[in-house]
Amino acid sequence: MTEFVEVNAISHEPVQVRKVEQYKLKPAGFWVRFWAYLLDLAVIAAISGLTVNPLFRIFGWDLANTIWYAPVTIISSFIFYLYFVIMTKFWSQTVGKMVLGLKVISAKEGKLTWGTVLFREWIGRFFSATLPFIYWAVAFTPNKKGLHDFIADTIVVHENTYEKHDKVVRVERVEPTVTKSEVEEIQSNEKVTDASELSQLQEPDRL
């Protein structure tokens, strides 16, 4: 869900409109997300270097085979996607995003669900990683959304940076309404008042 803060409201009675100032979290652009992604790749490389490589050397498995169905490629890919899924689900940001002050939020829901994270960080990121030119869409789309953001309906924002958006909304003037019982009560009070005044006029003055 996109966060916003309503700061001020100015009413214009003659034209029946109201100007609302909203502050939304600023979407993160292409380059800051790109640098965050490079930092994440470095973290993933370190994790693979500390786990996958020693394991393959212990069992004498081939580390030089780079075809897509090679064991080292499959395990490295699993670590790649698992890293993004776990970090985004529990912290809404990866290490690279933490360093640069970025965060993934849902455009509709308050909290990222497992379904949203899996669609974004597994399925959507698979297409972005397989076809890198798709990732360039971040630089040109509204709210700086990549393909994986469109798939999961998410937005990457700066954590503590807001943008001002002025919105003019129409205000419907509501005419005051009076119920039948209220009318009868008013008329009854008026009759009592009239009768009291009349009795005072007819009462002789006392010396």
Question: What layout of secondary structure does this protein have?
Answer:
Elements: E1 4-12, E2 17-27, H1 30-59, H2 71-91, H3 95-100, E3 102-106, H4 114-130, H5 147-152, E4 154-170, H6 180-202
Antiparallel strand pairs: 1-2, 2-4, 3-4
Summed up, what is this model?
This protein has 207 residues and is of the alpha+beta class.
Describe it for me?
- The chain has 207 residues and is α+β, with helices and mostly antiparallel strands.
- The protein contains six helices and four strands.
- It has helices spanning 30-59, 71-91, 95-100, 114-130, 147-152, 180-202, and strands spanning 4-12, 17-27, 102-106, 154-170.
- The protein has a four-stranded antiparallel sheet.
- It is elongated.
- Mean pLDDT is 77; it is low at 4-12.
Keywords:
four-stranded antiparallel beta sheet, 207 residues, 6 helices
SSE order: EEHHHEHHEH
Count of DSSP strands = 4
Number of helices, where a helix is a run of at least 4 consecutive DSSP H or I residues? 6
Main pleated sheet: 4 strands, antiparallel
Structural class: alpha+beta
Q: Strands of the biggest beta sheet: in what spatial order?
A: 1-2-4-3
- Give the strand content: 15-25%
- Global shape: elongated
Radius of gyration: 33 Å
Spatial separation of the terminal alpha carbons: 81 Å
Q: What is the chains' assembly state?
A: single chain
**How helical, in percent, are the residues?**
40-55%
Low-confidence stretches: 4-12
Average pLDDT level: 77
